[in-house]
Design goal:
Blueprint lengths: L7 H19 L4 E2 L1 H8 L3 H9 L5 E2 L3 E3 H10 L7 E6 L3 H7 L9 E8 L2 H5 L6 E3 L3 H4 L6 E4 L5 H10 L4 E4 L12 E4 L2 H14 L2
Parallel strand pairs: 4-5, 4-7, 5-6, 7-8, 8-9
Antiparallel strand pairs: 1-3, 2-3
Length: about 210
């Protein structure tokens, strides 16, 4: 990983770039200019060049970026495994909707298995293996670091068990306050708060 400090906003854009670059590679695109990538991801070209500058001198002006090289840098220099094995904890209605979400291609990993406590869910055929949450220690994939959390009960207890099993990143759909150490990162997805912010923004701009 580069020794430079990378702003949080830049880090949040890196997965967007990687997804776009992987799509372009699948389309047999070899090189791309920052202004072309800007049109593709709807991010200003000056922002793209600044974001990329944290990773070193990646291209020549007017020549463009080598897509294979960029992908390789994202996957190696950043020190991140972009083929993360992700687990889904809570395979109810929301969990199943996430499995059917149609934008998993070209992202940073895939959901490889699920965990639940409902025997009906565990026994119902699913796109991925679904295990009893009590089997977490035995069934969690090796080197798994990320979990998607969609449970509605015993949330803190569930998180504690996940962290004990090596989870250091959580995508949280529970809307509950969760306490974790500084070594664990939580990305909360709160649809209600997003709607409230949207309403305030609409009313503010009247």
């Amino acid at each position: 990983m580069t020794e430079k400090f990378v702003p949080k906003a830049t880090l949040q854009r890196y997965p967007i770039y990687l997804k776009a670059l992987r799509k372009l590679k699948d389309q047999n695109v070899k090189k791309i200019l920052s202004r072309e990538l800007s049109d593709y991801v709807a991010i200003e070209s000056t922002t793209i060049r600044r974001d990329f500058s944290f990773l070193g001198n990646l291209g020549k002006q007017g020549y463009g970026y080598d897509i294979d090289n960029l992908i390789s840098i994202f996957e190696s220099e950043l020190g991140v495994n972009f083929d993360e094995k992700i687990i889904l904890v809570g395979v109810g209605n929301l969990g199943k909707a996430l499995l059917h979400y149609n934008r998993w291609n070209h992202v940073v990993g895939e959901i490889v298995c699920g965990f639940d406590i409902d025997p009906n869910i565990i026994e119902t055929p699913c796109e991925i293996p679904v295990y009893n949450f009590n089997q977490l220690k035995e069934k969690i994939p090796d080197n798994c670091r990320i979990a998607i959390l969609t449970v509605s009960e015993n949330i803190q207890e569930t998180v504690d068990k996940l962290v004990d099993c090596g989870i250091i990143g959580l995508v949280d759909f529970t809307n509950e306050h969760i306490q974790v150490s500084k070594s664990v990162t939580i990305k909360a997805i709160d649809v209600v708060s997003a709607m409230q912010e949207l309403v305030f923004a609409i009313n503010f701009h009247k």
